[in-house]
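User: Okay, second chain of the day. Same drill as before: sequence in, structure tokens out.
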Amino acid sequence: MTLSGQEGQWLTVAQTLLQTAGWDGVAPAVVVSGAAQRLYLLPDCLQSTADGCWPVSTAANGFGNQQDSGCTPTGLHQIAACIGADAPCGMVFKSRIATGVIMPDCSEPMGDFITTRILWLQGLQKGVNQGEGCDSKARYIYIHGTPYSTLLGQPASAGCIRMHNQHILTLFDRVAEGTLVWIDPA
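Assistant: Same drill. Structure tokens below.
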């Protein structure tokens, strides 16, 4: 995979921020670009022979950390829980529990379905995305699968970060609880 000049520069800044937060540059880390509507798995996406960059949908309401805003939170997070390891692709989750319903890929939104896998995010910045009125975990912010693959690459979610069901399967297998996640509206 070849990154454009601007994309590569932005990822270099993201790497520096993650390293400041304790990332060793070897373990997986996730970076989400709101402007590009892409999710990058570091260091995989930086290796020319590896994948690790996928289209996503962040919130239709934009970016913000306030509770009940319907916005995608920004800043430094970590994966607090990895949910759905044994579920089939397309499984619908309600309150983080598999419902037994498989949702096929579709283009017309019929609800805000959470499918296939859930990576539950926990904010790491007090007063920004952690604590009263802005807590990402208490807001139930996830990286999760979606049946609406035609909406990926544009803001369309209710606050979470949506991924293609096949892509969340790949990401899920490469990350773990504690993996750092940087969400940037840029």
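The chain is about 15% helix and 30% strand.

User: Thanks, on to the next one.
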